[in-house]
Write a structure and sequence with these properties.
This protein is 17% helix and 32% strand. The protein has 217 residues and is an alpha+beta fold. It has one domain. The strands form five sheets. Strands 8-11-6-1-13 form a five-stranded antiparallel beta sheet.
């Protein structure tokens, strides 16, 4: 993080959870991902579909199967599993905070969620991001919002991301996934003035944090 946020993070445990839609539309390719909140499948041999009426199979060479979730209703806080000069430079951040007691950190987030009446669903999802190849079948992951929220394409593997996420409006429910077949074409992101976000305070966390600084000039 930039050093200007360090004191608030350590002394108050100030965490900004941004919606998946924010990162989906973010133009910086290091921070943004136009496929955030989606699970894609594009086999090298083409996407095979079956007509339900006749059982006829059709091969769509350039098609991509896409299952996506409610990106305005899922909020994430992103960290990394590695200490890296490259990441510090890419994210324009001269400070990295190493969390030495992850259990206390998670407990703090859960406690902050428990006292927020506006957040009805108190379920906190957390874990390492599953980086996948677009050629690999999604098996059952396409139907599970929490699996989609913790997955990204292989091209982001160098970030070694560890993510914390919670949801509103029943966004974790299996019925809150939508599927489509994409035939390509250029997508133009329409950047909004505001995106949903949630700020949590989990209290002083300085006792289980270690500070690292980088020269990114």
């Amino acid at each position: 993080m930039p050093e200007k946020y360090l004191n608030g993070f350590l002394k108050n445990g100030e965490l900004l959870f941004r919606s998946l839609s924010y990162f989906q539309d973010y133009e910086d390719t290091d921070r943004g991902d136009m496929f955030e909140g989606a699970r894609l499948y594009k086999p090298t041999t083409g996407l095979e579909i079956t007509k339900s009426e006749t059982g006829e199979k059709i091969l769509l060479p350039e098609a991509t199967f896409k299952s996506h979730i409610s990106t305005d209703d899922i909020f994430i806080f992103c960290t990394s599993n590695k200490l890296s000069n490259e990441l510090a430079t890419n994210f324009k951040s001269n400070v990295c905070v190493e969390i030495t007691n992850i259990a206390k950190f998670i407990s703090g987030i859960r406690g902050a969620l428990s006292i927020r009446p506006s957040i009805k669903d108190k379920q906190l999802i957390f874990g390492e991001i599953n980086y996948y190849s677009i050629n690999n079948p999604p098996i059952i992951d396409w139907a599970l919002p929490e699996k989609i929220a913790l997955s990204k394409l292989d091209c982001y593997r160098n970030q070694s991301e560890y993510r914390f996420a919670f949801a509103i409006n029943n966004a974790w429910h299996m019925s809150n996934t939508k599927q489509a077949i994409d035939f390509g074409g250029n997508r133009v992101n329409k950047i909004r003035d505001k995106y949903p976000e949630k700020k949590l305070k989990i209290g002083n966390i300085s006792k289980f944090c270690k500070i690292h600084r980088f020269d990114i000039t």
